[in-house]
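User: Can you help me understand a structure? I only have the sequence.
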Amino acid sequence: MNVVIGSLPALLKGTLLTIEFAVASMVLGLVVGAVFALMAISARPVPCAIARGYVSIMRGTPLLVQIFVVYYGLPGIGIALGPTSAGILTLTANAGAYLSESMRGAILGIDKGQWQAAHSLGLSHLQTLRYIIGPQALRLAVPSLSNTLISLIKDTSLVSVITVTELLRSAQEAIASSYRPLPLYIAAAVIYWILSTALSWVQHRVEARLRLPTAR
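Assistant: Let's start by predicting it. Here is the structure, written out as tokens:
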């Protein structure tokens, strides 16, 4: 217990960096996901093919390999990124692929008759998506979006392999000086659990707010 208390400042500092990584990757991942979701439902074959290829590659390869490619591989073609930039870029690209599929599925889950009705009222394709389809699709997508974002909190631990001093790396550095791995790894696991539980609570609150009222 004493070793955990003594290492608490370092663990909290690593936790703060973990949260910063997760928030940045969440926000950017949502943007990337939205863009590729729209490309995937496009009637034009080229954007659709690009989106499907991107999703296939990002979902079909391990996140750890993607981190190595970005951090260690890109310098070979003249693109050198720092650990923080490489970590956020990789997490964003990976999360964006999963989020795009959630958004695409939610948009396609809306009845096509609503598109036709909106167009008959004079709304453009973008106006229909923004005012009619988007709000309904958001309700459908919230659970899967939230699950992806919660997983992202845990995935941040992988950036420790490129020397980013987030929570797991902070625990490993404390272990190197104290030689007490069990309590420190348990402490790190508890912190990850607290962060994931907090996000789950937010998810339930958002779902409750967006839930359609039931008829009585």
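Now, to help you interpret it: Residues 15 and 191 are 8 Å apart (CA to CA). The domain at 19-166 is CATH 1.10.3720.10 (MetI-like fold). Let me know which part you'd like to focus on.
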